[in-house]
């Protein structure tokens, strides 16, 4: 099963980092 194009078995830390980076980019874009 893929989630955000990444395997579900991806390390949780890496997945959280990816999500956090996406959130930061979105926040910076709004500013």
TrEMBL record:
Descriptive protein name: Adaptor protein complex 2 mu subunit
């Amino acid at each position: 099963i893929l989630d955000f194009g990444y395997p579900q078995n991806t390390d949780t830390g890496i997945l959280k980092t990816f999500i956090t980076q996406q959130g930061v980019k979105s926040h910076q874009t709004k500013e």
